[in-house]
Specification:
With 150 residues, the protein is mainly alpha-helical. Helices cover 66% and strands 0% of the residues. It has two domains: 1-54, no CATH class; 65-150, PucR C-terminal helix-turn-helix domain (Arc Repressor Mutant, subunit A, Orthogonal Bundle), CATH 1.10.10. It has eight helices and no strands. It holds the Pfam family HTH_30. Keywords: DNA-binding.
Length: 150
């Protein structure tokens, strides 16, 4: 990770890191998988994680289906109209939906987090705490953070 952080620092802009495992005699195919993973992994100014297929398989699928990508983009557009909703959802899901931990990471009161999650429900008609909501909204957040629609 220290080498990756140094590379990103020298590049001077956020980067995504994709990894893949494969047989030694198929390095070109393995590198292609890692490249595709990096295309949908979140951009980070300081890399904290290495993304593999298991981490971004939903995003890989969404990126390959224009209809799904368009639908998620519309959800992202709705989220953009609220106060820090993408950042809020990212922190909420990274904290395993623990409200207190997410609020602490965001440096906000837990009631403020509740208001933001309610705003997500109002804007998207999706409950961020439901199984359906986690699938839809976490994929949308990951696509936004990967710079999919910039």
């Amino acid at each position: 990770m220290s080498l990756l952080r140094e590379i990103v620092e020298r590049v001077g802009r956020p980067c995504a890191v994709g990894t893949a495992a494969g047989p030694a005699n198929a390095l070109d195919q393995t590198a292609e998988v890692a490249r595709r993973v990096a295309q949908v992994a979140p951009l980070e100014a300081t890399p904290r994680t290495l993304s593999g297929v298991a981490d971004v398989f939903v995003e890989l699928g969404a990126a390959q289906l224009p209809e799904v990508d368009h639908w998620l983009r519309e959800i992202a557009r709705r989220l953009a109209s609220g106060p820090d909703l993408v950042t809020t959802l990212d922190a909420y899901y990274r904290a395993d939906m623990n409200r207190l931990a997410a609020a602490a990471v965001l440096h906000i009161h837990p009631r403020t987090l509740d208001y933001r999650l309610q705003r997500v429900r109002e804007l998207t008609n999706v409950d961020p705490g439901s199984v359906r909501g986690v699938r839809i909204l976490s994929t949308t957040v990951a696509r936004v953070l990967a710079g999919a629609w910039t």
